[in-house]
Amino acid sequence: MKRYCEQAIAGPTTDEIELGLRPTFGDNRTIWFASASNCNNKDFNITTQSNGYVTIQFCRDTMLAGDMSGFIIEQQFESTLKEFDDVTKVRILDSKGQCFNDMRGDPDPNTCYR
């Protein structure tokens, strides 16, 4: 799973770009990192639980390019990870441990599972 998340952040290969896929991470993209890493220079941490729940937590502050950018990122990670039979729920947290792309400011990260 970690490899798939890393590839999503790295972006499409040359062959995938020729097929029309576009990168979502990086300068002038849907999302970019706006701070240094708070976990040993990694972009994110991923943890799994025996109940099929997976958590991705970004290690860097993120900037979103527009209103739908956060939704695009959530869907990208969720749909990719749910391709694994043993993944039932996915949550994405920001670098501070709060729900990614959540304007409510809910301090309980357990409300983030989708």
Strands across the major sheet, in which order? 2-3-5
Number of domains: 1
Q: Give the integer mean of the pLDDT values.
A: 84
Major β-sheet, in short?
A: 3 strands, mixed
Beta content comes to 15-25%
Order of helices and strands: HHEEEEHE
Counted beta strands: 5
**First-to-last CA distance:** 17 Å
Radius of gyration: 14 Å
Helix content: 10-25%
How many helices in DSSP terms?
A: 3
The coarse silhouette is globular
List low-pLDDT spans.
none
The secondary-structure class comes to alpha+beta
Short overview:
It contains three helices and five strands.
Q: What secondary-structure arrangement, pairings included, does this model have?
A:
Elements: H1 2-10, H2 14-18, E1 31-33, E2 44-48, E3 53-58, E4 62-64, H3 69-81, E5 89-93
Main features:
single chain, 114 residues, alpha+beta, 3-stranded mixed β-sheet, two-stranded antiparallel sheet, 5 strands
Structural description of this entry:
This protein is an alpha+beta fold and 114 residues long. The protein has one domain. Helix content is 24%, strand content 19%. The chain contains 3 helices and 5 strands; from the N terminus they run H-H-E-E-E-E-H-E. The two termini are 17 Å apart.
